[in-house]
Amino acid sequence: xxxxxxxxxxxxxxxxxxxxxxxxxxxxxxxxxxxxxxxxxxxxxxxxxxxxxxxxxxxxxxxxxxxxxxxxxxxxxxxxxxxxxxxxxxxxxxxxxxxxxxxxxxxxxxxxxxxxxxxxxxxxxxxxxxxxxxxxxxxxxxxxxxxxxxxxxxxxxxxxxxxxxxxx
Length: 168
Hints:
168 residues; mainly alpha; Arp2/3 complex 21 kDa subunit ARPC3; 71% helix
């Protein structure tokens, strides 16, 4: 991995984190807040593989925990797993432009489910099937819309670095 690519990964995650915490979380949208950091993570993992996905997921999760008030490590754990699993779909021969979007939908479903499970294990009584369904539905809708814009833009940014991605 080149220094340029490493800087691009860091800039992508930090920009997504700032936009998610400073802008998207303040919008009066129903349900879950739009998961821009997760969209960026999946895009990077699908291009660069499971190791990069896990490392970027861990770093992004720690930064999210530090800015959100969650217990340090909760988001890091979840995003590490999501980044690793999304990265296992990297560089499939004959991969379609649909693959990153399908992987994003699976990652969103897994992240919402894991966060709900964590909350239940920690004794949060606010987690109900209705709340879980609303969070899952809104997170899938928001990430799908963000993915249509962000994934092609991310591919254009990554195109000039060491690997040639095809995230359309």
